[in-house]
Write a structure and sequence with these properties.
GO terms for molecular function: hydrolase activity. This protein has 14 helices and 8 strands. It is of the alpha/beta class. The chain has a single domain, classed as Cytosolic phospholipase A2 catalytic domain. Helix 1 crosses helix 13. The mean pLDDT is 95.
Length: 285
């Protein structure tokens, strides 16, 4: 009998990713698992806690440290080149302040890819994470390194930026890997369409040393909207189950208000709780 593989796709979106954390915490609460997953940017930095089975961890450390300047601040940006503090976010928190369970991450049989963008080609690179430490951390950081707001991450002899530049919602990728029944967590509401960036002329100048990235950013909104169309079509066919925020979660990457950040998480929790039976039926078919 043919075994249908089930997958999970997690979009990025900086602090909007707390919506994804809310949804995945509910998935853990009900013991819902997948054979494979792929995340982009915040979809990886927050989504990795789904593979390590650490429900509540994202909200906990965001509430405790999200307003600290070493977590994210213009001071960090102007002193290091990274809006989000690299050492604090990728070493101090997971190793000391709120330990990331790398052993649980490695034991979990679910395959988990993260997406980064090759700076020289502007093409997506899909890296299969193994143990949540060492080089994996570099790939996770690369996946969340937004051009201009972060320095590119060097891995081997190549540089990488945020995976959202080249494949913001890798639903096609997961299907190409043989996952036939997939769940997608979006961080934009129904009806959202990305528009061309009005600051593109400024972006062109700021990123002129990365010409392939600049060229790709000119068409990113078109590719993103085409991906939304694909997701809607697959959802209509019944091969995708999609979570979209049902309430406003418009928070900036620099949002520090704990109440606003927790509210984003709670929208994810509510949406998942309300549709959990529907989700179980979809996965059981």
């Amino acid at each position: 009998m043919h075994e249908v593989k089930k997958g999970l796709v997690m979009e990025g979106g900086a602090m909007r990713g707390l919506y994804t954390a809310g949804v995945t915490d509910v998935l853990m609460k009900y013991g819902i698992t997948f054979d494979g997953a792929v995340g982009v940017s915040a979809g990886v930095t927050f989504g990795c806690n789904y593979k390590s089975l650490q429900a509540g961890r994202v909200l906990r450390y965001i509430m405790r440290y999200g307003a600290w300047p070493q977590f994210k601040s213009w001071r960090s940006f102007f002193t290091t080149g990274d809006l989000y503090g690299v050492d604090f976010c990728y070493r101090q928190i997971p190793e000391h302040y709120d330990p990331f369970d790398t052993a649980s991450f490695a034991r979990n049989p679910m395959k988990f890819w993260c997406v980064a963008t090759d700076v020289a080609t502007a093409k997506p690179v899909y890296h299969l994470l193994k143990d949540g430490k060492g080089e994996d951390v570099s790939w996770i950081r690369a996946s969340a390194s937004i051009p201009f707001f972060a320095r590119p991450v060097k891995i081997g002899q190549r540089l990488y930026f945020d995976g959202g530049v080249s494949d913001s919602i890798p639903a096609r990728f997961l299907k190409e890997q043989g996952y036939e029944k997939n769940v997608v967590i979006l961080t934009q509401p129904a009806g959202y369409r990305k528009e061309a960036d009005k600051l593109q002329p400024l972006i062109d100048r700021l990123l002129k040393k990365y010409p392939a990235i600049v060229r790709h950013l000119h068409v990113r909104h078109l590719e993103y909207n085409a991906c939304l169309d694909y997701i809607a079509q697959e959802e209509q066919k019944g091969s995708l189950f999609v979570f979209r925020p049902t309430a406003d979660i418009d928070v900036s990457a620099l949002e520090k208000d704990p109440k606003r950040l927790k509210a984003v998480y709670q929208v994810g929790v509510r949406d998942a709780e309300e549709r959990i039976l529907e989700l179980k039926e979809f996965l059981a078919k």
